[in-house]
Design goal:
The complex is a heterodimer of chains A (353) and B (531). Chain A folds into two domains: 75 residues, no CATH class; 244 residues, MetI-like (MetI-like fold). The radius of gyration of chain A is 25 Å and the shape is globular. In chain A, helix 5 crosses helix 9 and helix 5 crosses helix 14. Chain A is mainly α. Chain B is α+β, with helices and mostly antiparallel strands and 531 residues long. Chain B has three domains: 145 residues, D-Maltodextrin-Binding Protein, domain 2, CATH 3.40.190; 138 residues, Dipeptide-binding Protein, domain 1 (Alpha-Beta Complex), CATH 3.90.76.10; 220 residues, Dipeptide-binding Protein, Domain 3 (Dipeptide-binding Protein, domain 3, Roll). Chain B is built from 19 helices and 17 strands. In chain B, the strands form three sheets. In chain B, strands 1, 8, 9, 10, 11, 12, 13, 14, 15, 16 and 17 form an eleven-stranded mixed beta sheet that branches. Chain B has a four-stranded antiparallel beta sheet with strand order 4-5-7-6. A two-stranded antiparallel sheet of chain B has the order 2-3. Chains A and B meet through helix 2, helix 3, helix 5, helix 7 and helix 9 of A and helix 1, helix 8, strand 10, helix 9 and helix 15 of B. Chain B: Belongs to the bacterial solute-binding protein 5 family.
């Protein structure tokens, strides 16, 4: 009896092991390998880049002795491979080093700038998804009609218009001429540091503080850049939704459902849409990740102090500690979003379990 | 799902519509100056280390110095600041300052001669990039104990040899001359760094303003020091906000959200011309644009060729087209307003004369490669030169690269020609004389990469000695005459064609008065500004 119990336990343990521990371990290993690869590639690019970090620090008029001393202090006189291992060791201890440009710990900088990007990209994605998905669905359902054409034009403009131009035009019209929204920056100058920073996201912090004046002001500043990003997200999401839906609507089960006399609304939402949810999750995760990392121009036009403009400034000044710290965080977000979309995949699609 | 979509879409739309009802901010508060500027070059707030434009702007308003410039009368040169007077020893090597009584730091601690001693010694010992401004007088970490000495209410500094007093005092007006509060700084010392880590992000001065916060690439907030010894500033707060784009700065100014826009391009300046409530404030700054020819090149080193090239530059054409309003013609190494600066500008585009000179040197079919950094105005200058050089049969190849690519070659003396920009390091004529016209050892082994004359392999033909003599001349008028003479010779013989001097054009709220950006010799002063 005891023998049977123990073998039963063993089977259960082995089932648990293969169902949870193995995939988790696999995921963790894949994260580690991805991050290591990312670090290595960024590091190598940083070292072969035609920008001289020493010169950015000491200035053009520095003598050779000052230049050499700074180079040694920065550890750049050591072989690249040694530099990489030192860096890796520090990162594993949670230390991204000190920014060469502003002398502050990079981790602290990222903690300050990342919430600004997160806030902007989240609002942009929400706008893109909640407008893009219905637009894509209607375009597919009304294929060939004016709604479909409109959706195509919207997507085309979203894809082809330079974000730089669109941002400046938006500022000129809605801020400069009409005065409907706030100008560049996250919040009006008089509201800087008015609400205590809890999450670093001004909209949330002002709600937590109960300060609606700051909330309104911050919202008036974020609405334009978020709409711009939302538009790009909408263009992508609606195009993908349309194509997924078209594929479903021509499937046999849809014809069967219609023959069975089900109302069109039920056919579209209960049957077709349910089957594209899984694909959409990946699209949305991808779009979100792109906005988190690719909103550099938007951040520059709107003087938005986020991670995109942080990494760009650092890159142009050869502040490699900041570039690598920022890249690692963005990379981690990518990986986490991927894992998250995989998890949702499993929740929504029983076949993937 | 559809219901959720509808609800969320309504929320987003509702919020957007709600926001449109918000009043736009029409003007900045009367007690505050709001500035848009590119401040991503600030790397530190420590005066012993700070060496960038936006950092100098902060330092100028936060730290008092022994001697300083009066923003309302820059032409008067340096005058007393935290030192009320000074005397020079007979041998000219020791200057003794008497400190002003009754001045306090922002912390409330009195400003003493010991603070001045500590600040200058500290800058030498820390040996950061701008330390050469002090160490060129022979101060070293080892000898500051004897050369920079406080005694009661006086501070004596003793240089290694006799220098022009104006040279020493001018250097003390640079950012590195800022006097820090010794007690506060040392209370924040870590690992024997003399408070360097702390002062990078905090301030301990006695100036008109103190720093409330500095968020890199975002903003600097200053608040007025009500006990400033020259009287409390009129504006209680100054906020400098990082705005990268000229178009955004213009919009902010036009909407009344800022008082001053520091980085406007010529188009935006023109666009605002005559706008109601907005003035364009123009000031000559110290930055020069030049081209240089490598003395190692067998043809470019010929005197006739050097002169010919100076006649092949369309100074006026460039000034009046793409440099419109942002640079003015200036053909020598001392920026206008510097002691000894001259405004001789003998060169203008003259293709025939250039051709004659080239023919007399027996030059035909010359091909030159010029290194250009990727800045737009420099590339445009390169393209203009390509055009005018071609008219005399010279083929100019432009190699556009990043700072590292181009400067590395320039510093290694490997470029035929370089299209460059140079800003003075401190407000004394020696700063530019000592780099453009000074080269004591022209050998490759000397490795004097900090000297522009060396980078172009130019044996200055006696100017080096003249620069050495000018820097020690005690009589200010004689000294001025010496620099004038050096520049007239430089104009004829140097492998440099200095072309333009920078003009800064700011857009400002018309109500803002007494604005002074610091001209060619210092940085912006906020304390006299009123609104």
């Amino acid at each position: 009896m005891a023998l049977v119990e123990s073998s039963e336990k063993g089977r259960r343990r082995s089932a648990l092991f293969s169902r949870y521990v193995v995939p988790t371990a696999k995921t963790l290993i894949s994260i580690a390998v991805t991050m290591l690869g990312l670090l290595l590639v960024t590091f190598v690019i940083g070292r072969v880049m035609p920008i001289d970090p020493v010169l950015s620090i000491v200035g053009e008029s520095a003598t050779k002795a000052t230049y050499d001393a700074a180079r040694e202090t920065m550890g750049l006189d050591k072989p690249v491979i040694v530099q990489f291992f030192y860096y890796l060791r520090d990162v594993l201890h949670g230390d991204f080093g000190v920014s060469l440009l502003n002398s502050r710990p990079v981790a602290e900088d990222i903690k300050r700038v990342f919430p600004a990007t997160l806030e902007l990209a989240t609002l942009g994605t929400l706008m893109g998804v909640f407008l893009g998905v219905p637009l894509g669905i209607y375009a597919a359902v009304k294929r060939g009609t004016w709604i479909d054409q409109l959706a195509r034009v919207v997507a085309l403009i979203g894809y082809s218009m330079p974000i730089f131009w669109l941002g400046l035009m938006g500022l000129l019209v809605f801020y400069g001429i009409l005065g409907w929204v706030g100008g560049p920056g996250r919040v009006g100058i008089f509201y800087v540091d008015v609400v205590p920073s809890v999450t670093g996201m001004i909209l949330i912090d002002s709600i937590l503080d109960g300060n609606w004046t700051v909330f309104k002001n911050a919202f008036s500043h974020i609405i334009l850049p978020a709409s711009l990003l939302g538009y790009y997200s909408l263009a992508y999401v609606s195009r993908m939704t349309r194509s997924f839906m078209l594929e479903q609507l021509t499937a046999e089960y849809i014809t069967t459902a219609r023959v069975k006399g089900l109302p069109e609304r039920t056919v579209i939402w209960r049957h077709a849409f349910r089957n594209i949810r899984v694909q959409l999750i990946t699209v949305i995760a991808l779009s979100y990740a792109t906005l988190l990392e690719g909103s550099v121009l938007t951040e520059i036009i709107f003087s938005w102090p986020g991670i995109g403009s942080y990494i760009t400034t650092a890159l142009l000044s050869a502040d490699m500690n900041a570039v690598m710290g920022g890249t690692v965080v963005v990379g981690l977000v990518f990986v986490l979003l991927n894992i998250f979309s995989d998890l949702l995949y499993k929740v929504f699609d029983p076949r993937a379990r | 799902m559809k219901r959720i979509t509808n609800i969320l879409a309504s929320v987003v739309l509702g919020l957007s519509v709600g926001v449109t009802g918000l009043p736009a901010v029409a003007e900045t508060p009367p007690n505050m100056l709001v500035v848009a500027n590119r401040i991503d070059d600030i790397t530190t707030l420590d005066p012993a280390e700070s060496f960038e434009f936006a950092g100098a702007d902060v330092s100028r308003n936060v730290y008092g110095k022994l001697v300083n410039f009066d923003p309302m009368d820059l032409a008067a040169g340096y005058g007393p600041d935290l030192a009320e007077s000074w005397t020079v020893s007979e041998d000219g090597k020791t200057i003794t300052f008497t400190m002003r009584e009754g001045v306090n730091f922002h912390s409330g601690n009195p400003v003493t001669a010991q603070d001045a001693e500590f600040s200058l010694r500290r800058a030498v010992i820390l040996n950061k990039t701008p330390s050469f401004i002090l160490t060129q007088f022979g101060f070293t970490a080892e000898n500051v104990g004897e050369t920079i000495v406080a005694d009661g209410n006086t501070l004596s500094i003793t240089t290694d040899k006799r220098y022009a007093t104006s040279f020493v005092l001018n250097c003390l007006t640079a950012t590195i001359g800022g006097i820090v509060d010794m007690k506060t700084v040392m209370a924040n010392e870590t690992d024997g760094d003399m408070g360097n880590a702390w002062l990078k992000t905090n301030t301990a001065g006695s100036g008109a303003y103190k720093v409330d916060s500095w968020k890199p690439n975002e903003s600097v907030t200053l608040s007025a020091n009500p006990d400033f010894y020259l009287g409390a500033p009129s504006l209680e707060r100054v906020i400098v906000r990082h705005v990268q784009e000229s178009a955004s700065q213009r919009l902010l100014l036009e909407r009344g959200d800022i008082d001053l826009a520091r980085n406007l391009n010529p188009d935006d300046v023109k666009g605002m011309d005559g706008a109601e409530g907005i003035d364009i404030h123009t000031e000559l700054r110290g930055r020069l644009m030049y081209i240089s020819l490598n003395g190692k090149h067998p043809v470019l080193s010929k005197p006739e060729v050097k002169t010919a090239i100076k006649y092949l530059i369309d100074y006026e054409g460039m000034q009046n087209s793409f440099l419109d309003g942002q640079y003015t013609i200036h053909q020598n190494f001392l920026p206008a307003t510097y002691l000894g600066a001259i405004d001789d500008a003998p060169y203008a585009l003259n293709v025939e004369k250039a051709k004659e000179l080239l023919a007399s040197a027996g030059v035909e079919g010359l091909e030159i490669t010029a290194g250009v950094r990727e800045a737009q105005e420099r590339v445009e200058i390169g393209q203009s030169l390509q055009n005018t050089f071609a008219q005399a049969g010279i083929k100019l190849n432009l190699v556009v690269g990043t700072g590292k690519q181009t400067l590395s070659k320039y510093r290694a003396r490997e470029l035929d020609m370089y299209i460059g920009a140079w800003g003075p390091d401190y407000p004394d004529p020696h700063t530019n004389a000592g780099t453009f016209a000074y080269n004591p050892d022209n050998s490759d082994e000397a490795g004097a990469t900090g000297l522009l004359a060396w980078r172009n392999a130019w044996d200055t033909g006696g100017l080096t000695e003249k620069v050495d003599a000018a820097v020690v001349e005690g009589d200010r008028d004689k000294r001025r005459a010496m620099y004038e003479e050096i520049q007239r010779e430089f104009l004829k013989t140097a492998p440099f064609a200095v072309m333009f001097q920078k003009i800064e054009q700011n857009g400002k709220n018309a109500a803002v008065q007494n604005l002074n950006l610091g001209g060619a010799i210092t940085a912006i002063s906020y304390w006299p500004v009123t609104k």
